[in-house]
Design brief:
D-amino Acid Aminotransferase, Chain A, domain 1; Dna Ligase, domain 1; 7-stranded antiparallel sheet; 4-stranded antiparallel sheet; 29% helix; 28% strand
């Protein structure tokens, strides 16, 4: 069930038609999903302080209601190692259209997955799980189920992926925690059901999974009724 804080996040995003990433991550966290440690920094001083608290290296992303696809404008920088580099990035990104601050967050290890949802006109909410990251559009390695998702559905979805072996310790890599992924997807499915009448789609890409946890590294939530931001679940791509 949506809390008042969750409803406020959705309502405050109505004008833009989509939920800015810091608010999207707040919403996901309130729903029980794990998100990185992050800070929305309005000034360069706040960005420097946030990076110092989180610990370098950090990920830095532009926050703007006019920039839906951040990667297309160079609005995502990973592996920022020091204050000097962070200040340079701030100067560059603060010149982008509609700049509202920088999202400064922890670097995350792990295998990259995509978890998504779309409200289909015929079938209602459907949930997607796939191999994520920059290759999601190339490989199209996904499994789809109608919501709600239960704990017994997730192992079957994983088994349906061509790249399932990559998640189970391929060539000595750390196997992901299926239990953590299970918790994330079940919580995500419940949130999608609660938001069925509010959203068009949600893309969590990438979700970074290790042997201990699965964390939503990037999130995009499109509200319904925004014809300029139409997106198909099969065309989801990372920010």
């Amino acid at each position: 069930m949506l809390t008042e804080d969750m409803r406020n996040i959705v309502e405050n995003a109505r004008e833009a038609g989509w939920i800015l990433e810091p608010d999207a991550k707040r919403l996901l966290s309130l729903a029980g999903l794990v998100v990185p440690e992050f800070t929305l920094a309005a000034t360069v001083q706040e960005a420097v302080a946030a990076a110092g608290k989180i610990g370098y290296p950090v990920v830095v992303k532009v926050v703007s209601a006019k920039i839906l696809h951040k990667s297309e404008v160079g609005g995502v920088v990973v592996g920022v190692q020091n204050e000097s580099r962070l200040r340079d990035i701030y100067e560059k990104l603060s010149a982008l259209d509609g700049f509202a601050g920088l999202l400064v967050e922890e670097m995350l290890p792990g295998s990259e997955l995509i978890v998504g949802a779309k409200v289909d006109l015929q079938f209602g909410p459907v949930i997607l799980l796939g191999i994520g990251g920059v290759g999601v559009e190339v490989y199209q390695d996904i499994a789809i189920r109608m919501a709600p998702i239960t704990e017994k559905d997730v192992p079957a979805m994983i088994a349906g992926l061509k790249g399932a072996e990559l998640l189970s310790g391929y060539r000595g890599a750390e196997p992901i925690s299926v239990a953590a992924l299970n918790r994330l997807i079940v919580a995500f499915s419940a949130l999608v059901m609660d938001l069925e009448n509010e959203i068009e789609s949600i893309d969590l890409n990438p979700v970074k999974c290790t042997g201990r946890r699965c964390v939503v590294a990037d999130a995009r939530i499109i509200l319904n009724g925004d014809s300029d931001s139409q997106t198909d679940i099969d065309d989801a791509h990372p920010e």
